[in-house]
């Protein structure tokens, strides 16, 4: 069994601040834990409006707090995000995330992240990022 604490993880190199200024994420469970997925607590900053396209990963995102919107660039549909919303990118869906009130999200990635990933120009993570 493994136990981790968010406050402690936030003070370690598990906390990654995105250079684009849109988000930070504390990667609490990573590839090296051999669970087959990774688990992150992500903060999306108020006013963020950015595109993502996880071509190499599947992702599920649960909103703990805050408010925003996700727009699918596959079908043009927009969906409100608030506490209790879960969105599931089961088709590597290209999307835009907008944040009107700072959001705290719990995110699961399959395959798991190594820990250092930040978005490339397409809003994706490469598969071979450096291991922490
Ligand atoms: C919702 C989302 O994908 N935000 C970007 C950061 C990501 N959750 C991560 O933890 O790397």
From TrEMBL:
Pathway: Amine and polyamine biosynthesis; ectoine biosynthesis; L-ectoine from L-aspartate 4-semialdehyde: step 3/3. Its EC number is 4.2.1.108. SUPFAM superfamilies: RmlC-like cupins. InterPro entries: Ectoine_synth, RmlC-like_jellyroll, RmlC_Cupin_sf. Gene3D superfamilies: Jelly Rolls. It holds the Pfam family Ectoine_synth. Coiled coil: none annotated. It catalyses: (2S)-4-acetamido-2-aminobutanoate = L-ectoine + H2O. Keywords: Lyase. Belongs to the ectoine synthase family. PANTHER family: L-ECTOINE SYNTHASE, PTHR39289. Catalyzes the circularization of gamma-N-acetyl-alpha,gamma-diaminobutyric acid (ADABA) to ectoine (1,4,5,6-tetrahydro-2-methyl-4-pyrimidine carboxylic acid), which is an excellent osmoprotectant. This is L-ectoine synthase.
